[in-house]
Design a protein that fits this description.
The protein is of the alpha/beta class. The protein is about 35% helix and about 15% strand. The strands form two sheets. The protein has a ten-stranded mixed sheet with strand order 6-5-4-3-7-1-8-9-2-10, sandwiched between helices. Bound molecules: 2-deoxy-6-O-sulfo-2-(sulfoamino)-alpha-D-glucopyranose (SGN) and calcium ion.
Length: about 525
């Protein structure tokens, strides 16, 4: 008996710490929060000390990508560990997530985890695989938002959505602790912030108002050599709504009615009388000044028709819109940072931080004026990328930056691996644990890192749809990107050398000097389409 015990102890000692006490997982995913607006990635625009704290105490991924840069599809990739064509949710407009399929939360449950989801869901069908959930309907609201509960009931919570989601997350952990729940948990905190139309918390309305944000270098892109880019409707100048997006509204009588005015009035109509007063105290004077200065006649010309943007009235207005966009987005990020800090503090106070994997990411990146745009969808860098930082549980000793290419299909296998659960063969992502073990990495882990993926595969489907981004697929390697825009009115290939053209302004496809690289990229693309079994090729 004695001998058996010491053998067991010896065996346990060889099992890495994170596997002896199965870690909790707190997965925080925001909506449309891009790495440019997170100071551990980019110091030009905002300060995000709490998000940075996750990176400082843990790891920051420098090459983190999504498989399909849109909310519902991204969430489906994360939940299943599979590309869109395999999980069936290819686009927001026609998709209903098949909740009967294998998902990571279900597999975690089977492995003995308690799972919960709070916040944005956006997959139309009822969530499955969570022992507790409270979700926003569709996109949800920033002010006094409605939540749908597991029993089907609907309730409006008072306050600002980012704080409310954080409250609910903390309350769920608190309840578990009180009930003496001993199972490890996986909590999915899905924020609405920083989705359009970037409505700030009332206490943050005046933040960033004295800051002038620098223009990104490719702000005045003319889209030459990139046909699909020139055909979209996501330009800050021409397509950002002056009422809905930049919030220039005085009253129905004194404000021009734009296409999105009714949507704007619905969103801010959720504020109580006192709250609306506070909101108006800030935006109405700005709006009055705006309409006095600019009138209502400011139709932006398409880029191609602007002979000289600089110095024109269009250019001035464009930069004015950019500043308003950046300021409001920055305010929304600020509150997100504060609330993530609150959740981290709570975990720390409860002594949970040591044994918890905290992940912070977004459903995709976003354009902050790059190419003159807002929104996402494209396979260009800003929206192919998504921020990803992790605070690691005891036993995973890697720190600093991780430069390998990772993708949101990797989260499911990573969490299963961490939970000690088997990773089903049909999962297409790979576990990130070999990258995270640090000194504890085994021979196999090191081998896995040495043979890490050399390219990520991407496929976007939502067209025809809002913002008019054509369907496309492609691959990104450490240096190059090959994209094929297809269907409807385009059939165009694009090739970028990211080393010499980081802003992706020069499509090199078909250039004689590039033919060899082009051939190799085509071959790799085809291999990946076969590997992932994508019928579109
Ligand atoms: C809404 C927005 C779009 C945005 C999509 C998808 N329009 O439709 O600007 O691209 O969501 O975003 S709005 O007028 O309703 O604000 S996603 O992140 O949910 O995929
Ligand atoms: Ca999104």
């Amino acid at each position: 008996m004695k001998r058996e015990t010491s053998l067991t102890l010896m065996a346990v000692a060889q099992i890495p710490l994170w596997a002896q006490v199965r870690p909790n997982i707190v997965y925080i995913m925001t909506d449309d929060h891009t790495a440019q607006m997170m100071s551990c990635y980019d110091t030009r625009f905002v300060e995000t000390p709490n998000l940075d704290r996750i990176a400082r105490d843990g790891v920051r991924f420098t090459h983190s990508y999504v498989a399909n840069s849109l909310s519902g599809p991204s969430r489906a990739c994360m939940l299943t560990g599979k590309h869109s064509h395999k999980n069936g949710f290819t686009n927001n407009e026609h998709g209903i997530f098949d909740g009967s399929q294998q998902t990571m939360p279900k597999l975690l449950q089977a492995a003995g985890y308690e799972t919960a989801l709070i916040g944005k869901w956006h997959l139309v069908s009822t969530p499955t695989g969570f022992s507790h959930w409270e979700i926003l309907p569709a996109q949800g609201d920033y002010y006094n938002p409605l939540f749908i509960h597991q029993d089907g009931s609907r309730q409006v919570d008072s306050g600002y959505v980012t704080r409310i989601i954080t409250d609910k997350a903390i309350q769920w952990i608190e309840r578990r602790e009180k009930d003496g729940e001993r199972k490890p948990f996986a909590l999915f905190v899905h924020h609405k912030a920083c989705h359009r139309a970037w409505l700030p918390a009332l206490e943050d309305l005046r933040l960033y108002e004295d800051k002038t944000f620098p223009l990104p270098p490719e702000f005045h892109d003319d889209y030459s050599s990139r046909e699909a880019a020139g055909k979209t409707e996501m330009e800050i100048g021409r397509h950002m709504d002056i009422v809905y997006d930049t919030k220039m509204f005085v009253s129905r009588e004194e404000t021009p009615r734009t296409r999105l005015t009714p949507d704007y009035l619905r969103m801010i109509g959720r504020l109580s009388k006192e709250e609306r007063q506070q909101y108006d105290d800030f935006y109405v004077p700005l709006s009055r000044t705006f309409y006095k200065q600019w009138g209502t006649d400011y139709n932006f010309l398409p880029r191609q028709q602007q002979s000289c943007v600089e110095g024109s009235r269009d250019a001035e207005l464009l930069e004015w819109k950019y500043q308003r966009y950046m300021r409001d987005y920055a305010k929304v990020v600020h509150e997100l940072d504060v609330q993530v800090g609150r959740l981290l503090d709570y975990l720390e106070d409860k002594g949970l931080l040591e044994n918890t994997l905290v992940v912070y990411t977004s459903d995709q990146g976003f354009y902050m004026g790059e190419h003159g745009w807002f929104d996402k969808r494209f396979m260009y860098e800003e929206s192919l990328s998504t921020p990803l930082v992790m605070r690691l549980p005891k036993g995973l000793e890697r720190r600093g930056t991780v430069d390998e290419m990772v993708q949101n299909i990797d989260y499911a296998p990573t969490f299963l691996d961490l939970a000690g659960a088997p990773i089903p063969d049909d999962i297409q992502g790979v576990s990130l644990l070999p990258l995270l073990k640090g000194k504890a990495a085994s021979k196999e882990d090191k081998q896995a890192v040495r043979h890490w993926r050399d390219a990520v595969y991407y496929h976007y489907y939502e067209y025809p749809a809002e913002h008019d981004v054509r369907r496309h697929y492609g691959i990104r390697t450490d240096r190059y990107k090959l994209i094929h825009f297809y269907g409807h009115d385009v059939n165009a290939w694009e090739l970028f050398d990211l080393k010499h053209d980081p802003y992706e302004l020069h499509n090199l496809y078909g250039q004689p000097a590039m033919l060899q690289v082009q051939r190799q990229l085509h071959r790799r693309l085809e291999e990946l389409q076969i590997q992932y079994d994508d019928p579109q090729r």
